[in-house]
Amino acid sequence: MIKMVMEGGASAREYVKLLKERNSEAGRKVESAVAEILANVRADGDKAVRMYADRFDGGAPETLELPRAQVEALAAQADPLFVESLKRAAENIRDFHQRQKQQSWLTTRENGVLMGQRIRGLARVGLYVPGGTAAYPSSVLMNAIPAKIAGVGEIVMTTPVKAGKANPDIMAAALVAGVDRVFQVGGAHAVAALAYGTESVPKVDKIVGPGNIFVATAKKQLFGTVDIDMIAGPSEILILADETANPRYLAADLMSQAEHDPLASAILLTTSAELAKATAAELERQVQTLSRKDVILASLESFGAIIVCASMDEAVDFANELAPEHLEACVENPMEYVGRLDNAGSVFLGNYSPEPLGDYFAGPNHVLPTSGTARFFSPLSVDSFVKKSSFIYYTKDALLPQADDVIRLAEAEGLTAHANSIRVRKEEG
What we know:
By secondary structure, this protein is of the alpha/beta class. It folds into 3 domains: 151 residues, 3-Layer(aba) Sandwich (Rossmann fold), CATH 3.40.50.1980; 185 residues, Nitrogenase molybdenum iron protein domain (Rossmann fold); 35 residues, no CATH class. Helices cover 45% and strands 16% of the residues. The strands form 3 sheets. Strands 1-12-11-10-13-14 form a 6-stranded parallel beta sheet, sandwiched between helices. Strand 6, helix 7 and strand 7 form a beta-alpha-beta unit. Helix 2 packs across helix 3, helix 5 runs parallel beside helix 6 and helix 10 crosses helix 11.
């Protein structure tokens, strides 16, 4: 079911190569189909959106925007206990992200020079939320709450309807997170509507949120027209474990990511051959009771591995090379690894910090870099929803003593008009 590599070295490197060659990008047919959808929505606006809603969503709604009263009525259908859990999760997410907020600043120098940086939220952000079999209310919280804290002026959410009705849990999450407007449309055509704007759907500055291959491809093609959160690949978990770890917990955590997608990867790195064998046995036992057994088995067979390393140092080096989305350290002294795990989207320390705790409740964002991009990308944050501008103010007395330096630098680059802009002021003295 899952590959067992009883020692590192060449076999482990082959596995790394397999993961890096894993192709999760859209094929040419999807790229072409999405490009056509984008072009049609750009040209025909609501008419094209409705046409694609009829084709892909099972029918276009009477109005693309869901009135606020209907959002509230749908949200009222959600399980009250579920809504209370959403609110407690939202409180944790707000507390964590509030600490990321930066302030504009101003500094002064001699001769009256002023300079600084202005930070403000984007004017409008679009949030895509799947609404069919893969409905994720938690993603509403993780995307909308940092945007609100950043000072985004308006959050516009799009989500497809199922059997003519939007998902009540998603509507409840939208109210808890502070989403401003909701549109009942999904797919690449919804992403296009957000990017270009239509008669009904307002144009946004950035699009965030998960989606299927058509949604992901649309976001990729629209980057530059709007900003996007990231190009997400299949989910990943890597666990570092020593002999003190519990194989029952390890197996459960590996499958928590494997159930997402047959392309998801789940990897255990351990220094204990006994623990490796016990975890494999637990996988065989626990998977039998899980509803997404077929997906889990497909994922583990293709991209799952248990690798026995010669030392924890080797395991840490391997983890940093792989740069996983989620990294658990199920070891006796997890805090000693915090400063050594450099390449990971989010790190979970100890036996009682499982990955799903971060997915739903603890507070850090669950929108994370995948496919090794944790080497240079960061999780979604308040910074993802702000823009920064610098400003300078020089007086005449401040500019003139430095004029020759600026002229010299400009002329060295052959930009004589740049130099002239300074020289004409110097000549007036």
